[in-house]
Structures are given as C-alpha cells and as structure tokens.
Specification:
Blueprint lengths: L11 E12 L9 E14 L2 E13 L6 E5 L2 E13 L5 E12 L12 E12 L2 E10 L18 E13 L10 E13 L4 E12 L3 E14 L6 E12 L1
Antiparallel strand pairs: 1-2, 1-13, 2-3, 3-4, 3-5, 5-6, 6-7, 7-8, 8-9, 9-10, 10-11, 11-12, 12-13
C-alpha cells in the first residue's frame, strides 16, 4: 500500500512488484488467474514534492488450453506533496501526504481501457518505536469502461481504494549506531468500493525486509468481505516486491 514517505530531492526509487490473482469462475466469468508485474519509478523533485509513474504488465489464464493472453495495462502518473512531517526521535515520525494524477489509456485490448481517469488521494504514516501504522485512500474518477473488466474500476464506475496496515519490527529489537537491516511483520487491509455497489476487502499478512537502499516484501491476501456483481470475485492473491533506492 502507499506510504507518506518519498524520495529525497534528486533521488530515484524503483519498485518491481509481482502479483498473482486467483479468481472464482462461473458461467459469466472465464478468467481463472492473472499474473501482474508492476513497475513503479518515483523521483524526488524538492524536499516535499515527488513524481511517480506506474506501468503494469499482465499474463491472463482463462483456464482452458490456448486461452492465455499477455499485454500491458494503463500508465498512471502522479504528483505527491508532503503536507506534514513531525520527527519525534531518531526513528519515530508522523507524516502525511496528498497526491493526484491520471491514468492514461496505454493498455492493450485485454488489459487497458479507452478512457483517461484522474485520481486524488491522501496517505498517513506513523512510526512509533517498533510499531508502524499506515492509512491511505484514493478516489478515481472513471470516465470509461475497460475492454475486459477484471479489477476494481474496470466496469466504468468511480472507484474508492482504501488501505490500512500495521507493521511490527521483529529485528533488530533496538537500533545501534551501526545501520542494520530490519525485518518486519506486516498486516495489510486492502479494500475497494465502486459506485456501482461492488465492494471487496482483503486481509494480507506478510513480511518486509528493509535495508538502507533496498527492500523485499511478501504477503498473501484472503477476502474478508465481498459483494461483487460486475466483475470476477477474487479468491486469493500473492504479492512479492523489490524496492531499490538510487
């Protein structure tokens, strides 16, 4: 999920996330699973402002031989502004940011749309000793329907993404003057609500390993609330990510 942190001026952060989505199948849905590879690049312009670009690539399995497709999704461009930063200690901090951007119709037929969709949102991050909290929300003004609706927002209705997470540092118990990589236990709540009434919420426990210039993350998500009529219902999902700071 997003955080209220961002690269320093002149720095780049590159993130590669591999996600596997498993869907329920019925007479109205022949999508069995989708593998997504999402590339994110963020750049710090000044101390409080950064820009970000996200481009996903997809592999879709319809569950029958010869029914697999590969393509790219819509490109998202965003500007993030940090509006709050209170450093409470060497590690402890409270931060908040707002962001806005647009999704451009760059995707191929099976994975993109023909619409340009603006979005706005905000995110809060707090670190208190070995504990961390995140909360974020994003509203997307959907102006058209995807060629093949699969994910939230694809069916042509406006979309609210809402996320919350709790992070607990497992190692090290305390920091010293020597910088050490840290291992965290993570619990994410990922939800979507669309103005057509579709609602989906996933709970995803996982692990995060974070060093000074690199991080690895892994989680598995399971549905805890679903009321979906306009696209396939998710069964479970797996996420693996790599983040590098330049």
């Amino acid at each position: 999920m997003p955080a209220a942190t961002q690269p320093s001026p002149g720095q780049w952060i590159a993130t590669e996330k591999a996600r596997y989505y498993r869907f329920e199948t019925d007479a109205a849905n022949d999508v069995r699973s989708i593998m997504a590879l999402e590339t994110t690049v963020a750049y710090g312009i000044v101390s409080r402002v950064s820009v970000q670009a996200d481009l996903p690539a997809y592999w879709k399995d319809a569950g029958t031989p010869g029914r697999t497709t590969v393509g790219i999704g819509d490109l998202a461009l965003a500007l993030k502004l940090r509006v709050l930063q209170e450093d409470l200690g060497p590690v402890d901090t409270v931060r908040a940011a707002i962001f806005g951007g647009v999704e451009l119709p760059t995707g191929t037929d099976d994975f993109g749309s023909s619409s340009t969709d603006p979005f706005v949102g905000g995110v809060f991050t707090g670190i208190f000793g070995r504990h961390g909290l995140n909360a974020a929300a994003r509203w997307t003004f959907v102006t058209g329907q995807a060629f093949d609706p699969v994910f939230a927002g694809d069916a042509g209705s406006d979309l609210l993404d809402f996320n919350a997470s709790y992070v607990h540092r497992l190692l090290p118990e305390t920091y010293t003057e020597v910088h050490e990589p840290a291992l965290y236990a993570v619990l994410d709540l990922d939800g979507t609500w669309e103005t057509n009434g579709d609602l989906e919420m996933f709970l995803a426990p996982g692990l995060l390993w974070e060093a000074q210039r690199a991080a690895l993350e892994f989680s598995v998500g399971f549905p805890i609330a679903q009321s979906v009529e306009n696209r396939p219902r998710g069964e479970w999902r797996v996420n693996f990510g790599v983040r590098l700071l330049f």
